[in-house]
Amino acid sequence: MSERSAAPGGLALIESLVNTLDIETGADSLDTPEGRARFGITEAGLDGARDLRESLRAALLAHAGHPPHRAVTELSALLARAPLYVAVDAEDGSARLTPADPGPLLSRVAAAVAEALVAGTWTRLKACEAETCHWAYYDRSPAGRGRWCSMQVCGARAKMRRYRAKGA
User: Fold this and answer.
1) What confidence category does residue 145 fall into, taking pLDDT thresholds of 50, 70 and 90?
2) Residue 101 and residue 7: Cα distance in Å, rounded?
3) What is the CB-side half-sphere exposure of residue 151 using CA atoms within 13 A?
4) Taking the alpha carbons of 60, 62, 67, 73 in that order, is the dihedral positive or negative?
5) Cα dihedral angle (82, 96, 6, 132), rounded to 10 degrees?
6) Residues 93, 166 contacting (CB under 8 angstroms)
7) How far apart, in whole angstroms, are the C-alpha atoms of residue 127 and residue 130?
8) Beta strand ranges found along the chain (DSSP E)
9) Strand pairing category for 136-138 and 84-88
């Protein structure tokens, strides 16, 4: 739904996972083999991937100051099952958190969250406040107070509803 450019670094993985479900239409790209293949999800791992997706959505809603969209497994409980280790580059001594097993989606998401935390970008990944949307987007606004994935769609709808509610 968003015309925004993709989130930076590993946050692009999280953004694209959250955006596999179009809440307004109910279309879920994880229902298709192609949609699952993008994330390396097997049919057996589908329920876990959906649980992860909705826990991420709840965290992104919290970044925007909104309550969870529904009851979900706490993201920290899910990420605790994805062990990371500190990898130190032998040439330059730089360090980063890396998944112990880079294959599973959960491990890649945990590493992306850790990377974003260190970079200071984690809280810039948000979910649109529109209840029929909750699309993930990266907030590039200077003050970090973006509210909608798209000003032209969700923002315009919200402003029109407020205007009509005033009785004008």
Assistant:
1) confident
2) 24
3) 5
4) positive
5) 30
6) no
7) 9
8) 84-88, 95-99, 125-127, 136-138
9) unpaired
Q: Which amino acid does the sequence have at 67?
A: P
For residue 164, the Cα-to-chain-centroid distance in whole angstroms is: 32
149: phi > 0 → left, psi -120 to 50 → alpha, else beta; which? alpha
Task: In whole angstroms, give the CA distance from residue 22 to residue 29.
Answer: 9
For residue range 84-122, list pLDDT tens digits in order.
999 999 999 999 889 998 889 999 999 999 999 999 999
Instruction: Quote the pTM value.
Output: 0.86
For the chain, helix (H) and strand (E) counts, in that order, are 6, 4
Bridge partners (DSSP) of residue 88 are 95
DSSP run (H or E) holding 36: helix 33-37
Q: List beta partners, residue 109.
A: none
Q: Determine the residue type at 42.
A: T
Distance between CA atoms of residues 90 and 57, nearest Å = 37
State the Cα–Cα distance between residues 31 and 52, nearest whole angstrom: 15
